[in-house]
Amino acid sequence: MIPTPTGHGHDAPRDADGEPHDAARVPCRHGRNISLAPLELEDAELLRRWRSDPAAALEVGAWPSSLHMMSERVERYLADDDRDDFLVLLPDGTPVGHAALVEENLSDGTAEAYLLLDAAHRGRGVGASALDALVDLAFGDLPLHRVEALTHTGNRPALSVMGRSGFVREGVRRSACLHRGRRYDQAVLSLLRPEWEALARPRSWEHPPPS
Known about the structure:
Elements: E1 29-30, E2 35-38, H1 44-51, H2 54-60, H3 67-79, E3 84-89, E4 95-105, E5 110-117, H4 126-140, E6 146-152, H5 156-164, E7 168-179, E8 182-192, H6 193-197
């Protein structure tokens, strides 16, 4: 079970920089060695820090902002009925990323997947586990038919994670990203419900809580 202490004791969850993270977390989904917990307003500082990573601007179009601006952004996230936002937690409760389904359209059965990890936890399989849990929500609990994901064409780590989760690259939006004065093409990937159903892997609800 993931600990949910409220103080700064020895066993309190800490963020990737070792700082105590106060929010008591009740995970709503589990995956391979990760859990997802609903995003809360007090998570704005974590998101601000992760988005301030230099690579984030290129990989997900993020840019540094003040804590006040980030808090307002999180408030908008939480008030938006067309998105679901989560913190990605390690087995010990450490928050290491932000995962979301955005622009959910239940009539059309579509949504876009979003994932941003702390730089210190990339390349360790956390992203693939979080993305799997996210698409299991989309197809296992929501009536979605298509989940889309976007990244620039040179973002090989992200493209690899999406491929491992079953996403199919279907096109390119030419010159769609701007980063430090240079334009980049944007890859468009998607996962359809029949493709998810054919994936030979356990679903997130089949994983026991990380311990």
